[in-house]
């Protein structure tokens, strides 16, 4: 079963809590703090897997959580870091944040790794909070919570050549004749309900991947038929083979059909028509097709689209068609990469991050929060300018007001990350 769009939930591992502990030994009853740090939580890592061609596995497992870090121990023992969770996805998978629809990652090559979520940082043990005036701190940092998201996995096949055209024109037959693929073939519309991939080996040693793109009908770009479901699969295709029924078995005009499909491509994404395209006029073994082949050549070859009369069922003309496609691919610029102009997902900005305040001991207040820690990390508080920015941040963020609501008094101690300072207005 072919599945190319699923929604899953991912979460990094939470950091382990720091330990509150004091050294004890024979004849030593009041040793110093020796609580160890908690371990870091595991990351959520997506990896491109060349052997996968569908997202079907994610229909049965939809929640992925990395292992949390272990808490710290006595005698300065650090907690063990949590293990990363590795999520394998097909090459060509786009990962979107479900609520905003913005792209968090785009896996385009086999073996490519993307850390989508970093595990939570482990909390510091109480050994870090000892000062000359506070030699027995009974506080240790809790481990940081990791982020979690609902994400959409969206597969866009990556192929060198894409077979496009209306249903029942012979795309699946052509694919089966020139590749190792075994698509379902029958004489009715929408036999193909999923993209099929095959590998072509040309007479000159060319080897390329060919995909049969189903679901293209008039109005596909507006969601008619299976259009929206499968149009995404043409976006990363270098060359199009536009297959038409030159015999007009269905009573359609092949010249008009080419125009209709190209119009749908352009309406979906305008630059698709700028990619190389050849026309395969199929079913020329049926009498009466010669006139339509001549009309196709007269109409489209002046526009730069070469027309090849073929019969996929009897292998007629396939060598000439594949030779031309192989030539186009050999001359294709290697530096061209087909990518959407994605609106990338941004992490929550520092000034929007929540914070918490806790009075862990009388007159000792601890401020925690990812945004606050980031601010401390990129601010040099030892300089006059940096300290002024630090004070401004605390005020604008609302931390000063929140401390006052907690009952802080002048001379009390405030702890932020690895910084202790006395509170004065």
TrEMBL record:
Cofactor dependency: Mg(2+)
GO cellular component: cytoplasm
GO molecular function list: GTP binding; GTPase activity; magnesium ion binding
Main localization (coarse): cytoplasm
Record domain OCT: where: 347-425
UniProt EC number: 3.6.5.-
Entry-linked InterPro entries: G_OBG (IPR031167), GTP-bd (IPR006073), GTP-bd_Obg/CgtA (IPR014100), GTP-bd_prot_GTP1/OBG_C_sf (IPR036346), GTP1-OBG_CS (IPR006074), GTP1_OBG_dom (IPR006169), GTP1_OBG_dom_sf (IPR036726), OBG_GTPase (IPR045086)
Gene3D superfamilies on file: GTP-binding protein OBG, C-terminal domain, GTP1/OBG domain, P-loop containing nucleotide triphosphate hydrolases
Domain OBG-type G: residue ranges: 159-330
Positions contributing to Mg(2+) binding: 172, 192
Residues where GTP binds: 165-172, 190-194, 212-215, 282-285, 311-313
Obg domain residues: 1-158
Assembly and oligomerization: Monomer.
Protein family per UniProt: Belongs to the TRAFAC class OBG-HflX-like GTPase superfamily. OBG GTPase family.
Protein name (record): GTPase Obg
Species of origin: Anaerotignum faecicola
Gene, per the UniProt record: obg
């Amino acid at each position: 079963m072919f599945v190319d769009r699923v929604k899953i939930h991912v979460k990094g591992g939470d950091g382990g809590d720091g330990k509150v502990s004091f050294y004890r030994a024979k004849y030593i009853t009041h040793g110093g703090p020796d609580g160890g740090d908690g371990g870091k939580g595991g990351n959520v890592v997506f990896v491109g897997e060349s052997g996968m061609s569908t997202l079907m596995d994610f229909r049965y497992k939809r929640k992925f959580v990395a292992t949390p870090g272990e808490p710290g121990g006595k005698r300065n023992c650090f907690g063990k870091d949590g293990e990363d969770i590795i999520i394998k996805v097909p090459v060509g998978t786009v990962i979107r944040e479900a609520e905003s629809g913005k792209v968090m990652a785009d896996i385009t090559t086999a073996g490519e790794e993307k850390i989508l979520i970093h595990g939570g940082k482990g909390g510091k043990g109480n050994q870090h909070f000892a000062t000359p005036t506070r030699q027995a701190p009974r506080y240790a940092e809790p481990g940081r919570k990791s982020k979690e998201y609902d994400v959409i996995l969206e597969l866009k096949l990556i192929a060198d050549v894409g077979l496009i055209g209306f249903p029942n024109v012979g795309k699946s037959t052509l694919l089966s004749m020139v590749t190792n693929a075994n698509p379902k073939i029958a004489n009715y519309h929408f036999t193909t309900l999923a993209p099929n991939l095959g590998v072509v080996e040309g007479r000159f040693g060319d080897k390329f991947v060919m995909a049969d793109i189903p679901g293209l009908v008039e109005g596909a770009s507006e969601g008619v038929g299976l259009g929206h479901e499968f149009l995404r699969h043409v976006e990363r295709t270098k060359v199009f083979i536009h297959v038409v029924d030159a015999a007009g078995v269905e009573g359609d005009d092949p010249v008009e059909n080419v125009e209709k499909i190209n119009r749908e491509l352009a309406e979906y994404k305008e630059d698709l028509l700028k990619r190389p395209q050849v026309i395969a006029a199929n079913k020329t073994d049926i009498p009466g097709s010669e006139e339509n082949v001549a009309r196709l050549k007269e109409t489209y070859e002046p526009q730069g689209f070469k027309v090849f009369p073929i019969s996929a069922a009897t292998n007629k003309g396939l060598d000439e068609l594949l030779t031309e496609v192989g030539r186009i691919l050999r001359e294709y610029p290697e530096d061209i990469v087909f990518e959407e102009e994605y609106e990338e997902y941004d992490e929550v900005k520092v000034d929007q991050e929540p914070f918490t305040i806790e009075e862990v001991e009388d007159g000792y207040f601890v401020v925690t929060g990812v945004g606050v820690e980031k601010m401390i990390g990129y601010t040099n508080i030892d300089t006059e300018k940096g300290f002024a920015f630090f004070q401004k941040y605390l005020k604008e963020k609302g931390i000063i007001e929140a401390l006052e609501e907690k009952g802080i008094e002048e001379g009390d101690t405030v702890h932020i990350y690895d910084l202790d300072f006395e509170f004065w207005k």
